[in-house]
From TrEMBL:
Signal peptide: 1-24
UniProt keyword Signal, yes or no: yes
Keyword annotations: Signal
Domain of life: Eukaryota
Organism, scientific name: Sordaria macrospora (strain ATCC MYA-333 / DSM 997 / K(L3346) / K-hell)
Presence of the UniProt keyword Signal in the record: yes
Protein name, entry field: WGS project CABT00000000 data, contig 2.43
Length: 79
C-alpha cells in the first residue's frame, strides 16, 4: 500500500474498526483537480475509549492504535 492517496474530497468510511478519514492535505498531483496527501483518520482506540486523530496510512494508524491499546485488534475483532 502506498503512503499517499489521490483524493477528490470524498469521505471514505472503513467499517473494519470504524475509522473515518477526515482530512487530506494538498500536495502536487499530475491529475488536474486532484491532490495527493496524507490522510488523517478519526479513530476510537478502545471500545468506549477516546476518539483521536491519527495521520498516516491505515497500517500506521493500526500500529498507533496497537501501541496505545495492546488489545486493539481483539477489541475490534480485527483478527
Ligand atoms: C479531528 O480533526 C477534525 C478536523 O480538524 C476535528 O473536527 C475533530 O474534532 C478532531 N477530532 C479529535 C478527536 O480531535
Amino acid at each position: 500500500m502506498i503512503s499517499s492517496v489521490i483524493t477528490s474530497g470524498a469521505v471514505f468510511l472503513i467499517s473494519l474498526f470504524q475509522a473515518l478519514p477526515i482530512a487530506a492535505f494538498p500536495a502536487a498531483s499530475k491529475i488536474d483537480g486532484y491532490s495527493i496527501g496524507d490522510i488523517t483518520w478519526e479513530i476510537q482506540t478502545s471500545p468506549g475509549g477516546p476518539v483521536v486523530n491519527v495521520t498516516g496510512t491505515v497500517q500506521e494508524v493500526i500500529k498507533y492504535a496497537e501501541k496505545v491499546n495492546p488489545n486493539f485488534r481483539s477489541d475490534f475483532t480485527l483478527d
